[in-house]
Amino acid sequence: MIGYTSLGTADLARATAFYDPLLAELAAKQIMAFDDFIVWANADGGPAFSIHVPENGKPYSVGNGVMVALVAKDSAQVDAIHAKALELGGADEGKPGFRAEGFYAAYFRDPDGNKLNIHHMAG
């Protein structure tokens, strides 16, 4: 299973200002912080999420077709996370709603252009 996911950034301070309040909505907080990357996780010890400045010294770029999906506790949290992402400077990539039976989701991009999904599997 997944231990953690990582996305790149061109500006770690800007990424931190975006992800600190956004991931707090999912009860996640920073568990590691260094000059070139930051890691967030929940207290339950589940998968973590990190943002990194590229280690190879080359400019950051968005991965075409790459997306990180975050799990919400319910559809109201999907709505709230999507709204929070836009409030924090993210871009809308798909408003909250059902994409398939039982799959309620929304899509957004962070300030670096990384694509994220927030979803809830409704019963």
Written overview of the protein:
This protein is α/β, with parallel strands linked by helices. The chain has one domain: 2,3-Dihydroxybiphenyl 1,2-Dioxygenase, domain 1 (Roll), CATH 3.10.180. Helix content is 21%, strand content 40%. It contains two helices and eight strands; from the N terminus they run E-H-E-E-E-E-H-E-E-E. It has helices spanning 12-24, 75-87; strands spanning 4-8, 29-33, 37-41, 48-52, 67-71, 91-100, 103-109, 115-121. Strands 1-4-3-2 form a four-stranded mixed beta sheet, with helices on one face. Strand 7 and strand 8 form a beta hairpin. It is globular.
What is the correct CATH architecture? Roll
- The SSE order reads EHEEEEHEEE
- Secondary-structure-based class equals alpha/beta
CATH overall fold name: 2,3-Dihydroxybiphenyl 1,2-Dioxygenase, domain 1
Strand content: 35-45%
Question: What CATH first level would be assigned?
Answer: Alpha Beta
Q: Supply the number of helical segments.
A: 2
Shape: globular
Chain-averaged pLDDT: 94
Major sheet attributes: 4 strands, mixed
| Low-pLDDT segments | none
The count of β-strands is 8
Please, what is the CATH homologous superfamily? 2,3-Dihydroxybiphenyl 1,2-Dioxygenase, domain 1
First-to-last CA distance? 23 Å
